[in-house]
Amino acid sequence: MEKKLGSYSIVASLVTSVVMVLLFYLLALQKLSERPDIYKPVDVYAGMVYVFILSMIVSASIWPGIIEKNGMKVHLAKDKKQASRGKCHNSRGGLYRDDP
Question: How far apart are CA 56 and CA 93, in angstroms?
Answer without folding.
Answer: 45
